[in-house]
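Model: You mentioned two targets. I'll fold them one after the other.
Researcher: Yes, keep them separate.
Model: Target one:
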Amino acid sequence: MTLPELLDIDLPIIQAPMAGVSTPELAAAVSNAGALGSIGVGASDAAAARRMVAAFRERSRRSLNVNVFCHEPAKADPSREAAWLGLLRPHFERYGAQPPRELREIYRSFVADDAMLAALLADRPRVVSFHFGVPAAERITALREADIVLLACATNLREARAAEKAGVHAVVAQGYEAGGHRGIFDPDADDDCLGTFALTRLLARELSVPVIAAGGIMDGAGIAAVLRLGAQAAQLGTAFIACPESAADAGFRQALASASASHTVMTRAISGRPARCLRNRFTALGAAVAVSQIPAYPITYDAGKALNAAAKAAREFGYGAQWAGQGAPLARAMPAAELVRVLAEELG
């Protein structure tokens, strides 16, 4: 059985989950067009995730990918967190705001979220995908027994082999070009920064499960290239940000359509984990601080979201988490179903 057959899709195209940007409307439009639509629930609780799945199913009967975060739960460091808030204070004050008094772990990792597991087992989306690692064996077993197809992101061969051993059906090869958070299991480990082409070819040769290529793929030519390298599907994220169905705000859309799209950087300052973002005020701030100053993920994100909200209230969008890959200049603003159709035509 090919991967598209396993996923029950017509095209070897997956819309990346993109928590905070993907929506049920976007995912449904993509799935109805024959690709695999995705929603990211790593930043949501179980009740919100179930609402998102229900909203998708109101619009589509096709396959859905639900993505969860499998990071190690954060270890609080009050002194480092206080120092970080002190460093950010002038940026808040510039927009007439004050930083939070303290920072919280705003997201619960799937590795410790029994309610999310129960929600997934109740709703049984066709696909569940993991980012930042893989959960414990009992969670993998429960999902597989519910006839859910499992995907896991990997940035190197070691992670990919761990995901394969854990029991996933396919591995997403996330190249360094990719926008958003690096799927690296340990954010403090050395990162070989493997590009999409090298990683895809390596994993296709070494793994016994199918490979999905991700990172910098924006059109049919990119999809065709990774299929030639041995991938059985391509995952595109940045390509869908400009679609009207996405939740990207006006500032993000404007930046993506400007010369800013040609400049992306990897930063930890926004969330606490490495993530590729359009160069903006927040990434400039991050370039001037040491990694040791930045609190753990997602505790740092609590401050990042608060600062972005304060700046946006003053019509400044430069502190947003404008996650985008190196292919951002190739983004096309069109409805998601039309984009899938164009990608299929380009693929031939």
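Model: Target two:
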Amino acid sequence: MKLDPFVTQIIIATDFDYFTMNDVRSPYFILKNDISLKPVDARRNIYAELLKLVKKGWLTKVKPSGKGFTRFIKTKEFNESTLQKKCKKKSSTTIPIIKRSLLIEKLNHYKTELLLNLGESEAYKELYTEFPELENDIQPHYTKARDNNTRILGKKKPLNTYLNRVDD
């Protein structure tokens, strides 16, 4: 049985159980790192891979009684070492891959927040240039926006440092 190495890396994490297809899809996009990959194609591929494991008896498919997502549960037959051997692309550690994807999401959130705050700072600067008489009203807002930039950079730096260290 040939399996997608990225799906394998995600599901063999020991703390990854009782999951939906969408729980696999988010880290899959990060691991795959392919901007041309369409969400529909990724969903089909992941679902097909999960069904292979259901057929093999390593996962159980649990359908919700009402609304909700189908979940997959690892069975007693689930064999992490066999999956790792079948995986073309081995990884020295699989648990950090999932955590890495969460760290990247967090880093992207900080980047977005930083861009918003930079835009806000620039807008206050422009207002001050156009209307110097509003300096007393604008200055506290400008200072707060700059302080937020510094705070966000402080949160972003450790994530960058860790992710760069892990990539080396």
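Researcher: Noted. Anything on target two?
Model: The mean pLDDT is 81.
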